Write the structure tokens for this entry.
Amino acid sequence: MSLRASDVDHAFEKLRMQIRDTKDRHAVLYYCGKRILKTKRSFGAGKIDDNTQHLIRQQLKLSEQHFSELIGCPLGYDQYIEILKAKGLISQDTQH
Amino acid sequence: MKSGVFADVISEGALLVEEEFDSRLELDGATVTWFRESRRSLPRVPRAQVNFQSSEGGPAIVQERYGPTPLILHLRDLADHRLRLIGFLPVVLQYGEESVTACSYDLEDFGVGATEFEALADLRSTIVDLYFSLKEDQDHLGPQPQREWAFLRSIVQEL
């Protein structure tokens, strides 16, 4: 899957991640006031190579299929939260 | 059966299926070596290396399905006047087509650059940034950042 910086930014936005720009663009997911996970991308509008793409996907705790769906748009915020709950990264009984 | 797979190996440019091989096999003069231990965690590890002798007795051919073998090293310094590493931090350098990534699997974080030095510098600054952002959020951490914070506190000292 070929991925561009703008695709990653769009995914961060969909997942309602908080963005902070330093030397890199850092994205942190908070849920119910708790910090859940983080990822980042380097600046530059070009293509994101396979290694970096793989590491971003791992930081987001997504399978290859779910990551493709995130980039391709079917996977949204609510489904993502359910995935994280299933993986134990968010307590099952945590409600917004 | 294995000869058939081997034929596929040659024709497909060493695209192998792990389950079909033991960790090391001799097949019609070919040696197939799996790098099994790193298959899951490292995206560009050569998962298989195939060496075979041509039927005419020519030189051996070596094919690797994935890029160069990653390097593992240990960071001893974060290059920041506020923090000191009091332990060694294992880092894996992986080579992509146009960039190098430096990854800490303990912290689940990484740096990217055009060279090894740039990737390591990016990782160092990412770790420094992670330390202070986790410190700021330390009373509101989910399970994953809690583990990262505990690990960071075990290897980093504020100056």
